[in-house]
Design goal:
Layout (H helix, E strand, L loop, with lengths): L3 E5 L5 E6 L3 H10 L5 H6 L2 H6 L5 H13 L7 H4 L11 H7 L12 H7 L4 H19 L9 H13 L8 H15 L9 H11 L2 H8 L3 H13 L3 E2 H7 L11 H11 L2 E3 L3 E4 L4 H8 L4 H7 L4 H8 L3 H12 L13 H6 L4 H8 L3 H10 L11 H5 L6 H12 L2 E4 L2 E4 L2 H12 L4 E2 H14 L9 H8 L5 E4 L3 E4 L4 H9 L9 E4 H7 L1 H6 L5 H10 L8 E3 L4 E4 L4 H12 L2 E2 H12 L3 H8 L7 E2 L2 E2 L8 H10 L4 E3 H12 L7 H4 L3 E3 L3 E4 L5 H10 L3 E3 L9 H12 L3 E5 L2 E4 H8 L3 H15 L6 H9 L10 H9 L4 E6 L2 E6 L6 H12 L1 E3 H12 L5 H8 L5 E3 L4 E3 L2 H9 L1
Antiparallel strand pairs: 1-2, 3-5, 4-5, 6-7, 8-10, 9-10, 11-13, 12-13, 14-16, 15-16, 17-19, 18-19, 20-22, 21-22, 23-24, 25-27, 26-27
Helix pairs in contact: 1-4, 9-10, 9-11, 10-12, 13-15, 18-19, 21-24, 25-26, 29-31, 33-34, 38-39
Length: about 900
């Protein structure tokens, strides 16, 4: 095709053109030689032209033809202007002229429309886009009333375009689309653009939607699919057409082809009114893919890589590679069965149980297995935890419960796991409510397994001992006996943490000492003797301080202790002393039984014995140690542990026998020392605490000392003092002097409370109205004050349940499980969440669902996890089902 000379006119692009081969190149050549005007061009002779470098025969002929045209316009204007090749070109101008494209109308012309009617190369496309950008900038720049930077313009345009579809994009898609839009907008030199006015024009003129669809070909399909999915219902074509008006990247003209694609892939179905999104089943989706997914289909049907390789006569590795590539095209997270992936990944269920619970087949199970990402290091949850998770439907719960019950034995409304631990736990409750010897228990358990035809072998007695030791609801006693122990673990832990072991620092003691020092605490957790307590501490050894070492039952050591030194220290302090008195004092101080002291301990003091009298001289005490201690001991009362710590901090670690304190003017006791100014410890406590109208126990370790504890218990019981806040007390005299309320009036109120409550369980919440109608209400004290009064009332037993104290007028002990059993029996059956509300509203007890379920396991109550109902027993449940 020939070259064209195009002549510029004032408005528009061209006035005329002449077909002269090589015209443009010829003019460029002479221009480089210095010919830059029409006049100079016309003056050139043939000889001149032949001497110009770069002019061949065809170019010379072109110049001669141009000279004949007598053109008035400046032929060299384009070469003088550095702004482009607007006037001398090949076929761009012809294309613009042919399609009637100019600056006035180019913004409304779409590239894809031009491409339908023209064969366009990159040069034409770039020229078209360049002119459009130039025209667009002229139109939109300087339209804002206030300055706005290009970066802000680009950001606002991008956000205006993407915000309507933001909820239908994945994060990666959003990032990529943002980048592509920014790349297009960065090509324009925006200055002070009114974005609100021109946003649509700019994006439409730049054909941003076409650009993005070219970059991400299936983005429109994905947006439409997600839009339909979020509707959660059938969508009519009218609603759909209206809904996508606001969605960029989806054109109405292209809507039906997109819907057809979604229908063909199985993600959308046609309905009577329109369309509806659905997650296709994996079988359906594989069917849509047809032969392309044949390998996956075979794998999901259970074939191995080797078997499929034999079918195709290729290696196992080749099939594995093909499978890996095929998995990449499966949108597995959109497949219907993927909703079970969380259960597959997090819960330990056999394939058989999993398929039964979720009503799927092996094909679907293999799909989950193929695409799930399981962390093999993570511990999976149990089937029981899944049942209580709240994630299952009613039908799924029923199926799982049916499976779980297969492993249980039902006896008198009790569900018992058919394994060794489950049977042992049940037999402990059944046979050991009163203490029983291990031999008798062993025989009873074996008889039980025979009676119920259980295929469970406990082995010999030693093997059963190992199983029993893991049971939480049991305590070992002296003489290889055991008993049922159903106390709440939380309560036991709280009690153990309440024991001040530091009071016995550097001592070997019997658990009997703890039993004597903490009688109320031991009563609350139902510990009867030192052997039970020692066994309990053994079970919870992990929460004990490192200083506490459990020795042979019932002994324990706190810190570092030597029995021989401990015996000798006490002997030196008491010498001379009779065997009887010494054994009595050692038993009182360290909790070891008198019989054990006489039979086993006194052997270590035989060299100090003379005719049933023991005598040991006081060793010489280093003067430096006495001086150091004297400098530390400036007060009347010290806990021994504090002395050791003070001394260690200033002078280094040391250990002191009790008799050394006699030299310093102090009386040594088990846990503390007291100035000789006081003949007895209770005199000191009376003077510094109980004689005051208001006092606070500044060191809770005092409550574990025998003399202090006995005094405070007696005064609370006699209504001489009352606890009005945690460890804060007020005297009866103070109350009487300020309010006129007497002890007699308090007793009358207590009598009124016990009479109204009778033998019912009650908390302060239930007697608050009685208090409010009494003179005590004027005191303004919290519940702890009234609970303090009630705890001292003879015949009232109490248990702490969480942060609430529950009382009952009874001779028998009661526990949280007996309390719960009685509450549920009133209703016969109750929804577990209704029970939670009832306990909080009526008693002030705050228990979680999990806490209640754990308590139920100690009772004959029956909890149905699917219905989330509690029944007073299994018979009640079956009666309800029949009705």
């Amino acid at each position: 095709m020939g070259y064209v000379i195009l002549i510029k006119k004032e408005r528009g692009f061209f006035m005329d053109f002449f077909n002269i081969p090589q015209a443009e190149n010829a003019l460029k050549a002479v221009y480089k030689f210095g010919i830059d005007t029409n006049e100079k061009l016309m003056d050139l002779t043939l000889d001149d032209l032949m001497n110009i470098k770069g002019l061949g025969k065809k170019k010379i002929e072109a110049i001669l033809k141009i000279q004949q045209c007598q053109i008035k316009s400046d032929l060299f204007n384009d070469f003088k202007n550095d702004k482009g090749k607007c006037y001398y070109t090949t076929n761009v101008e012809v294309f613009f002229s042919k399609n009637n494209i100019n600056e006035d109308n180019i913004l409304s012309i779409k590239l894809d429309e031009l491409e339908k009617n023209n064969k366009m190369n990159n040069k034409l496309i770039n020229s078209f886009n360049g002119l459009k950008r130039k025209s667009l900038i002229k139109k939109v720049n300087y339209t804002s009333s206030s300055p706005i930077k290009k970066e802000e313009v680009v950001s606002k345009l991008k956000d205006n375009f993407l915000n309507p579809i933001r909820n239908y994009l994945l994060e990666e898609e959003y990032v990529n689309l943002s980048r592509y839009i920014k790349e297009e907008l960065d090509l324009l030199d925006f200055t002070d653009v009114d974005v609100d006015m021109y946003s649509e024009l700019i994006m439409d003129s730049l054909e941003i939607e076409k650009v993005l669809q070219d970059k991400i070909p299936d983005i429109s399909l994905k947006i439409l699919s997600r839009y339909l999915k979020k509707q959660h219902r059938e969508v009519s074509f009218f609603q759909l057409s209206k809904g996508i008006d606001k969605l960029n990247l989806i054109e109405k003209d292209n809507l039906m082809p997109l819907i057809n694609d979604l229908v063909n892939s199985g993600f959308v179905i046609f309905t009577s009114q329109g369309v509806k999104y659905q997650n296709p089943y994996i079988r359906e989706y594989i069917d849509v893919l047809g032969y392309k997914a044949d390998i996956l289909d075979k794998r999901l049907k259970g074939k191995t890589l080797e078997e499929i390789g034999e079918d195709y006569q290729v290696t196992r590795e080749r099939i594995r590679q093909k499978e890996r590539n095929l998995k990449k095209i499966i949108p597995y997270k959109e497949i219907f069965e993927w909703k079970y992936s969380e259960f597959f990944e997090k819960y330990e269920l056999s394939p058989e149980v999993f398929c039964k619970v979720f009503d799927i087949g092996n094909y679907e199970y293999n799909f989950l297995k193929m695409f799930s990402n399981i962390d093999k290091r993570a511990k999976k949850h149990t089937a029981e935890e899944l049942l209580d998770s709240g994630l299952l439907s009613r039908k799924e719960k029923e199926s799982l419960l049916e499976f779980l019950n297969e492993g249980y034995l039902i006896i008198e409304n009790k569900k018992i796991k058919k394994n060794r631990v489950g049977i042992i736990n049940y037999c402990i409750e059944l046979f050991a409510k009163e203490e029983i010897s291990f031999n008798d228990f062993y025989n009873l358990v074996n008889d039980f397994t025979k009676q119920y035809h259980l295929d469970i072998d406990f082995g010999n007695e030693r093997a059963m001992e190992g199983i029993i030791s893991r049971a939480s609801s049991l305590l070992w006693k002296y003489g290889k006996k055991l008993r049922y122990y159903p106390i709440d673990e939380d309560k036991v832990i709280e009690a153990i943490k309440g024991i001040s072991f530091s009071n016995y620092y550097n001592s070997e003691i019997s658990a009997k000492k703890l039993l004597d020092d903490y009688p109320v605490l031991m009563q609350e957790i139902d510990i009867n003797d030192e052997y039970e307590l020692h066994n309990l501490l053994k079970k919870y050894e992990s929460i004990l301080s490192e200083e506490v070492i459990l020795k042979r039952m019932p002994l324990l050591e706190v810190g570092s202790a030597s029995r021989e030194e401990q015996l000798l220290d006490l002997l030196i302090e008491m010498s001379p002393v009779s065997k009887e008195d010494f054994a009595l004092e050692y038993s009182r101080k360290y909790g070891v039984s008198i019989q054990t002291v006489k039979a086993n301990y006194l052997k270590l003091l035989v060299e100090y014995e003379q005719q049933d009298i023991y005598n040991a001289d006081t060793p010489i005490i280093e003067k430096e140690v006495l001086k150091n201690l004297k400098g530390i001991l400036t007060e009347q009362f010290y806990f021994k542990k504090d002395i050791y710590l003070r001394y260690e901090k200033r002078f280094g670690k040391a250990k002191f026998p009790d008799y050394i304190f006699n030299e310093l003017g102090y009386k040594p006791f088990s846990e503390f020392i007291l100035s000789n100014e006081y003949n007895r410890a209770d005199y000191y406590f009376e003077e510094n605490y109980f004689s005051k109208d208001l006092f606070e126990i500044d060191d809770v370790r005092l409550l574990s000392t025998g003399s202090f504890r006995n005094l405070i218990s007696e005064k609370v019981r006699n209504l001489d003092i009352f606890e009005y806040d945690c460890y804060k007390y007020i005297s009866m005299d103070k109350i009487t002097s300020h309010t006129g309320i007497t002890k007699k009036q308090i007793l009358e109120i207590v009598s009124d409370i016990t009479e109204q409550m009778n033998d019912k369980y009650f908390s302060y919440l239930m007697i608050e109205h009685i208090v409010e109608n009494s003179k005590l209400n004027n005191l303004g004290f919290d519940a702890i004050f009234y609970e303090s009064i009630l705890k001292g009332v003879e015949g009232l037993r109490y248990q702490n349940m969480g942060t609430t104290t529950i009382f009952r007028k009874t001779k028998d002990k009661f526990y949280s499980y007996t309390f719960l059993e009685e509450i549920v029996s009133k209703f016969k059956s109750i929804d577990i969440f209704d029970l939670i509300d009832y306990l909080e509203d009526y008693y002030g007890i705050v228990w979680s669902k999990e806490k209640i379920i754990s308590i139920i396991e100690q009772t004959s109550l029956y909890y149905h996890p699917v219905m989330e109902m509690i029944y007073q027993d299994l018979d009640e449940f079956y009666e309800m089902m029949e009705d």
